[in-house]
Amino acid sequence: MHPNRKIIRKRNYDYTNTGWYFVTICTKNREYFFGEIRNEEMQLSVIGKQAQIFWLEIPEHFPNVELGEFVIMPDHIHGIIGIVNPRDLACKIPTSKVPADTSNKNEYMASISPKSASLSAIIRSYKSALTRWCGLNDSHSFSWLARFHERIIRNQEEYNRIEEYIHSNPKRWQDVACNVSTLKKC
User: Fold this and answer.
1) What's the CATH number where 130 sits?
2) What are residue 19's DSSP bridge partners?
3) DSSP string of 142-160?
4) Per-residue pLDDT, 174
5) Coil, strand or helix at 115
6) Where is each Transposase IS200-like domain found (predicted)?
């Protein structure tokens, strides 16, 4: 537990709720692991290509998820994730690893892991899969920023605006890259 860590999620909001979310996931120290922008187009590296494959596979692992627009940039990923019918899914956390002396297994499981099928569980699984792949493929220096940024998309107008932002991100990269040193967080 990090006592001084600022809470960045909306308080009292259930991130297993049906809805659309705009997420940004950054590499540690904003390192360019995913490729580079050339002529306003993203040219994916080997890690970037695998990041794209794993992103597109998210709905295979989380049947309650639909993907919207996304883009992989040199040092971050922007994407729209939709959670649909979350209440139809059973918790898939194995109970075999629960300590024998734990009196309430449900409380224990809830305390050690994000809710099954929640936005945090989806992002954690995605980040873990790519990190594991990098380790197995001699890219041991790859690392994510520990957290991610999310925004709850509240209506169609906002969805459309975010979709356009994501789509045009590579075209604006030169402007963004010039200002990276002023960014405090993703």
Assistant:
1) 3.30.70
2) 83
3) --B-SS-EEEEE-SHHHHH
4) 76
5) coil
6) 16-169
